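Quick start: what a row looks like.
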Amino acid sequence: MKKQAVNRMHNFPDADLYLQSMDRIRFALRDIKEFENYGYDKHRLKTFQTNCEKLKDLPDDDEMVGDQMIVTDKKYSSSEKLKSSIRSLMTRVNMKFSNRTGRYRKFGTAKMGDMTDAQLLFCGRRVARVARQQIDFLSDVGVNENVINKVVDATTAFENALNIQQDRVADRDIAVERRVDIGNLIYKEMVTLCDIGKDIWAETDLAKYENYAIYESNNDQKIKRKEQLKAEKGEK
């Protein structure tokens, strides 16, 4: 059964989630005596911090996309080499058979430029197979094992490049899912911590209460800080 996609619980970048969480951990350590009254101790804070460090160390999407682009370029290069080896063989075949004949049609290379990766892979295998079947008819135009093996080798190289590309696509999907899972875990813990912190200071210390406010973006945080500075200076 396919795993159901998990959605992010927060709408700001993971880097902001990490920084906000680490800030709240420092505040909670400062207020640990009060937090312990809620059953929230240093051990739980340590687990929270460990998860934050795990998130920080995970490769981000730019890294995964970069890896994917590198292997995609290699796959494209391999596909062009395969097409070149097929064209070289088919030039010889065309010298012997018209492209309207059944012997030519068996190679199945029409519209090769429009083939999908899977179709091209099958085409390479088919061309080598059919060429060997007809090698006695084609030997006088230079089709031999050396020419056929160039197609075979190019097909193998293309298949390997294609598999590596698909692996990188899967790696990226897994990495995204892992980041979402641990990000959601961290966000939920940060919300719990902040709820406790706000409850502790709601009626006794406004500044400490604000320490536990969660901002959706850096801009929200900057606006709040400006408002605080104005209030401290008595500005309107």
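That is the whole record. DSSP finds ten helices and no strands in the chain. The two ends are 60 Å apart (CA to CA).
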